[in-house]
């Protein structure tokens, strides 16, 4: 089942209006191999939500879960309840799910669970979930708000770890981020857990469960896949090693002016402090870590408190902001890491003031044994809003839990202080009730000192106690307790306890998740509800003391009930902790309680076996509450216990109760509140789930499967008949996959139910352990039922040996429907009565629970007839050879079965309402197994040959020639047939000691008289009785019974009318006291015996096929003698000479128990993988009851494996409970298949059992006789061929290379070790190593072992290795051992040669990356290649990836394609024999070798395939030069208090150590070393290269940070050529010069020699080569002449490209993890390095690579402050003008000591100042990292300079100069030189946000930001800002010119500070500004400018314009008449002139 909890989302542009939003999810699964789908359960759980209201609401953000009932802000959606069904209806994978629609607020919340109940296919790593956030009711084009895909690989690999994703970014269809995020949680329940009914979404181990959906982990980032490693989970509650790391990166928009912030980090109780920085955006990059040794639950509660303080302010006002979270938030994040997350800081004393700034951090939790995920920057981590974590200091929704405690009943009574007194009685106790909440407990009424371990929870106290009531049967408190509650709640459990003084009588737990809900997932579902309970009774349980004063802490007993009521109310409790309940509430509760009904509990005991051999009689007792408990006197006695009896030995190993055809029955009546409706609903849900899981197949399913198989058969036959084609090998898998997809599509319409296996798994048997109830399911639990659980006890006298606890609803019978009945109601089930570590009984019982008024249907649930008897025993003692009832010592003549209570027959009366039905009769004892043949393996068959004669005549055949011992006629001895399954081991012989008279006549054996057959005999009273009389018997007894029936017919079952005791005549008080046992308060009257009789049993035959046990775990070491292997060993037979390694040798034997019979296998000495290959046959097993019921619920088969060392019972190794397959019709039987059954030992898993079981019904038709008997082999029955694994002749080649690092035992060095290899009963002995100190390799390396192994992989036994040393005097101690599992990885095909990786021949011109470069590539240094490989092109000098470097994020051995560098030989760790089986055993050495397994031809005439291990390198040690290149390290664990360390490198090889203490990098956790070490070593004597990083301290010894070890031998022997990586280009000079010993052509020849290929053939010009059957041309790799510098010859370049085509190790950089022995399993950081190995035999090596770190360059920044504008004036002049005395200060971030300031511009009106001042800042800059390098000492007492790298940032501040007070801060400007904002060219264009011009010519050119290191010069206006109230506003403008010069340019163009000499570049002139305050006299025009023009410039301009217009108008009026007159006169003049002409 797959569940998705959708918690909340974040919409950046939401307004709350418009359509609602919802989440649409679809599961995308891949089809299975055979097209079938299995049960899949995926849980997506929305954990919490963050509500952010709009600005008009004025509500602060809150962490909510949809609790609308507690006054949440507007927009919160009501949660709905969701009930999880164990096996929901199968739904196709493609069916989508959708949440409900909520308003489109900024942070909508759902808290809704979406469930995909899919067909039974396990979750695959390729499955995923597609999520879409959509608007409701909008068109498709405008509906999508964002989408993402969540891979489910981590869930498939580790189902127990839920996937928590918080603020998961969503993308649009083009893949661009939309700004929206969603928070969710996904969980998965595998099919196996669903089958067991465990479908609850349980929290991880050690983490307290949460109410409803827990809050999601606030993690930002995409859904990344977790590591594929599966790590063993420790036991619950076990402490582990953890390390918590917090990295403080930088701050942003911190509130305050002129602040110097410092960050304090509190991790648990450890406080850390960062360096002091300056400014509102400080940069830190500091790491703090703390180690913990806690359980996961304790670690999750450890708080992390982060505070940002202002170091300038006083302590009370120093806090800028704070943030709280717990380690559990980081622990549950993907990869257990928060990367680059912004924290929203809040003031702790003013949470409503809003955000006080942001702090960017990274946090990680390192767990021992788990790899640390690679550090990745989350998407959009630079943007605060896209990666923001809300503060935990926000005000939560607060509520109050009110727990009302009314009264109690049925509390246990106190034991008498003087129990030896007869008058002592048990009294009531003075009781009180204690309640604990919030996960911590203290004394009653005390407070919690560490309540803040749960963030946001401030509850004090968390434990409250009622007042102590006087001793009473029903104490009444009527008190209410108040507990503060935060919503969503962080704690789930309310723990309750009943106290009597300091003693805890009983406990109970209320889970808030069981009594509340977050809402339904389906539309129209009911809303959620807050925690509520009752009023109802809550049962309490606890340990009890037996009557024998033996504490039984492992038992669980009923200790009473308490009437409770729980409710949740909003608001706080007004400081109250407890109060009295109002009288009206008490009256209300009385009316709300349901009516009581009488319930009847009945149990029929069918069989009980595997009982302990107790000296006292055993009995089983059934109780519900105190009813039926024989040790309790508060209830009336009932027939709640079976008759006492001694268990009988079954003849093999176990003891059983002799119940024949009359099975004991117990019946208990009690009165409880009506819980029928609750039980009906609970059982109906269970029934629906089981029915859905067992849905039968449809006809369509069968037809499609048959068609699919037929099509595959046709394809296979066509492939076999047709000509050989290469396509057939690909066609069949493709057709299989296609048909699988077709079947998957069909399953979407009709899902295929899971086929029921031939054998029900172990979890199919309801096994209830002692004191451990079944795990509660939140959706299916009913805590308000009020009826206690049913307890089934096994008692021996007064002691309780074992107990089973069964929930009452599982037994309840319902009149509603059969589906509403409990799972165990009316069905026969097998129960295991256990105590931890020991099984006390295997009980087969049928239970029923229901109303007494409705019990008339009880006989329908029982298979036999019920009879009620009165019972008494007649006792006799043998006195002087005669039996007599007189003078019995301390025993009455008629008594109970124990012989303690006198019960004469004549005084026993039937109970009230009952009458006798017949006289007293003797009940003869009967046994299920005859005593002489009980469980015997050999039976003697007797036939009496009878002869007769006349007196004095001859003997002749009698009338009945052959009879048995009783005289009945039998066939002659020649015709006696051997029973089925038996065989004859001896011939007939005459018994010479027969019973005949002196005359030779036959004396018939005298059978006892009829009355004598009922006697049982014993030697002493209290001993075990037997049937046959023996010579020493002095006591005997027999049982008298009298049947009774009810006097009147009744509508209820008669057995429920027996409550009370039978009436008896009054006995004298003295006799009663004498007959009453000590310590018992029951009367001596007999309790009626109820029996269920069966007419005829059914006969069955059980066949157990025990093949093998695997990986047995013994408990110690023992010595065994060696032996000689047989000449022709059985391939599956173990032999005494074999000593299995992997643990101490054992002699295992398997005991099989089934009902009342048991058998054992043979003992196999000296093995941990015994192959019994044996069949155990149980003939004619009599089972009573309906055979059809046995088919559905067969009895369990228990297999126990013991180490039979010598005599005795042996030591227990493991147990497995198996279910046989039942065949009622033997003719339709199919042979079973061997299955793996887990063995559970005393300490947990103890191995596996490979076996099969079947139960065959022996019908009367004789079908059983026609069934073949298993074959007889060597005295035992073997496994039949159809079941026994098929064997095949196999060849096992062993490459035994050598032994490494062996450590002797008892301080004895290892001298000459040898190796033994065992597999399949064969042992291969390898000759010893003569001198381990000079050559640790074996003299002979390749061996061949021929053996028979099973064809199926699952049946193949492991390979076991055993190393023995040869000492003096023939002493051969056992040194080490190993077990090699999974031999499939060593299997090879016999046909053809080894499949080598074939190179890919490139096609000329097909690779566009190999085109010729137009420009010559600059070679650069090695660091350019490194940064190019890291993807940082800005730090690299290269422009192409041609000469690339491969950077691996893991060790080179962890790269999958290099096979761990163990392709030649693998390393197998050796462990100490007989050592403790710990979690992490320490190896004592290593075995270097390899195995190859392949089949051999069965025909001897067929030649075997060629051997694999033929071409081997020399095994002699060789000298090698090792070069170790250490580049850098990161994520180092800090060792100093300041969160830093001073690391340096130390390299060790053998006894040689390199590395000096003086070469350390001070004060860093990310050092860059750039060092190379050379060392000579002898491999393999010095094969382990150890690289350590140590922390330099003032005085040695230095602490080790971490180390890593590299196996040089594996790299030297690997065929991947790992000793020296191959570069991409072949250069003969320069930094990338070829450094290997062999040239590429010689290396190619060496590769051909090692892989058995022909040598390469080069052409004359070296441009072509033939190698490996392929032809390579240089033109395939190079399209023209090389464009790089210093290329080599074409032959070498071609050979290098051919080597790369064979997937060899390239030039690389590996990332190795560092570990510390003091903190095993915890990563201490990573180091990037590589190793080159040069054997001396191959010649001198090439030159080393120069990896010296880059040096920073010197730069000089010149900043000229020209003018200021619009700076806020701080003063007002006498004339009312605003003015300021402005000056500017500036410095580079991190260089505060170089702060400079301008002169003061006095009386600057309106904030306009003029300075013409130059700042000069020299600094060191590392261009590759874009950081300023600041080497300086932190303090004057510091010994080393700390190299701090910060971004280059110029900080300028504007101040107002004051004479008599502190200067006033006016504004700040921070300019990051690498991302410099483009300045404005005019003051009016200078704004906080760039102003876009509407005109094309007014648009800004170029990007908005640029780097000053590229542009070198910039001038313009930049805005100054002031931070106020979480926002910033513009406070002025600065005109600056910035110029950046390198060291050479600064020397050529010198310039002084300010206006000092040399005043050049550019020369600065003094600004024009007044020098005094007499502004009117010295500069009147300037004064007018500021006094008049600035204030009235608009009016002056408007007035001037109006005057100008007026003048123009007047001029027009004045000139218009004349102009018009001239226009009128001028044409007349022209006309007159024309007329004259």
Structural overview:
The chain is mostly beta strands. The strands form 21 sheets. Strands 30, 32, 33, 34, 37, 38, 39, 40, 41, 42, 43, 46, 47 and 48 form a 14-stranded antiparallel β-sheet that branches. It is built from 19 helices and 93 strands. About 14% of the residues have low confidence. It is globular, with a radius of gyration of 46 Å.
Short description:
It contains 19 helices and 93 strands. The protein is mostly beta strands and 2037 residues long. It is globular and about 185 Å long.
The biggest beta sheet reads: 14 strands, antiparallel
Tell me how many strands there are.
Answer: 93
Q: Specify the overall morphology.
A: globular
**What proportion of the residues is helical, as a percent range?**
10-25%
Counting helices, strands and paired strands, the structural category is mainly beta
Tell me the distance between the termini.
119 Å
Strand content: 35-45%
